[in-house]
Specification:
This protein is of the alpha/beta class. It contains 8 helices and 11 strands. About 35% of the residues lie in helices and about 25% in strands. The radius of gyration is 18 Å and the shape is globular. Bound molecules: cytidine-5'-triphosphate and magnesium ion (MG).
Amino acid sequence: LGSIAVIMPAAGSGQRFGSQRNKLFATLAGKPLWFRSAERLAESPLVGRIVMPVSESDQPAFENEFSDLVARLRIEVVRGGAERYDSVRAGLAAIGDDSEVRWIAVHDAARPLVSAGDLAAVFAMASQTDAAILGAPVPGTIRREIRLSDGILRTETVDRRDLYVALTPQVFSAGLLQRAYQKHNGRPATDDAELVERIGHPVSIVRGSADNLKITYPEDLAVAEAIYARSTK
Ligand code: CTP
Ligand code: MG
């Protein structure tokens, strides 16, 4: 119990959300998004630590305005970096070689809607395979372009039954994720799973709910409120 440490990157600025402050300060059912995300994780008996990388400019807000909420979930606030993987790296440095930590879960602070069931399922899979992420089925029809020499753009249908939208948490054995980041040469990666793949370790996937959406645009909040209300009924 308690052998999972969570790194919850929160050091972005929320450009696409377009508010004055970090989008993570917007509220969902009366509490900031980052708090709602952490709350879901803190409810799991398997989670022993929550490390949250934040930006330099947001640090004062977490130390003052939000200090009670931070303390309530025993969140460890650390300084994040310019890119998401810099922030995850800062989280890894904070965890260091804590011998109580057997698995590390990386979960976007912008995903406040992950269900307890999906969390338990991805944690269980990671304990079996050392690397597991949540994924949602692709909802729409996908077409791939085929370019012929006549310059006309044509497309063909892609079978989407074996495609997933990658979600978080992404959960790895602690040593594996530390190694993937040590070997990281700076070439951008789309997520932590890709970095782990690059050092030759396969990543298993657990089919999760598409309700676990990432708040990216302001209009995502209304959807999130509806899903949240339903999940707490
Ligand atoms: N993140 C981070 N450090 C960065 C960039 C992003 O910790 N340098 C975090 C964000 O705070 C967010 C998660 O990574 O919780 C996913 O990133 P995204 O949804 O893209 O958030 P932002 O980068 O803040 O938004 P945008 O790309 O619109 O600016
Ligand atoms: Mg971003």
